Amino acid sequence: MNPSEPRNTETLSSKMMDVIDVLAMQREKRSSLQKSITMDYTSSNDSFTVARFIFECGMKLEAHPLTVATAATLYHRFIRESTAKAYDHYLIAATCLYLAAKIKDDLLKIRDVMNVASNTLHRGSQPLELGDQYWSIRDAIVQAELLVMRMLKFHVNPVHPHKYLLHYLRSLQAWFGEDEWSKYPVAKTSMALLQDFHHVPAILDYPPNLIAIACINLTLQIYGVVVPLMDECDQLPWFNVFCKDLTREKLWEIMEKIMSSYDQEPETRDAL
Q: For the Cyclin-like domain, which residue ranges apply (predicted)?
């Protein structure tokens, strides 16, 4: 580690080893997600659990990852702006997913969103029939959609870190060269970290370009990868090429926030 990095790097390094284990667990869990999902969402409505509900519904609906990330962002923004106890979190979550699909031109029908959300919240329930309950839920989503847009002052198309991540990864790939780049799953892991960071409200606390850099740098740290050609840049850290004002302290702060988000996993919480 560079001696100019913060004093808590040793703690963060040990925590990164935990993240490697968590990522492995996540991959295994996601591979079996479609076969068996038993999480009981009715027992909790904290922000992480509701965001996970959004991700599960998005996966079942085969929504684009950017649609799901938008939905999670809208949900966190709404809850931050509102009196959370006054609203049904899962209704807002389903509404944010439906609204995000519109924003990102992801063709999700409101009936499909309703049925998937209902079945995910109430395991084993039958598809909603065209009756009073169906029209009541549909009307609730339509009204909640207007509420979300008003609460967010109609600024419902956030600037995502994804486009920055893609740009930075393409540049790094050119620096590494194809053979060296293919040795490590930098792009895949960086994207996984970014998507997972959308489970927590901290995704709102930092500029999108800095979040993208933090996801990449965390991935490089996890796999022990050193960015080439930096010796020719007077020891300038690779991330300062993209953001000259970004300090190591701020970068490690964001990285720690990303790693801390994994502590919210039920399996992780139970182990603490």
A: 52-150
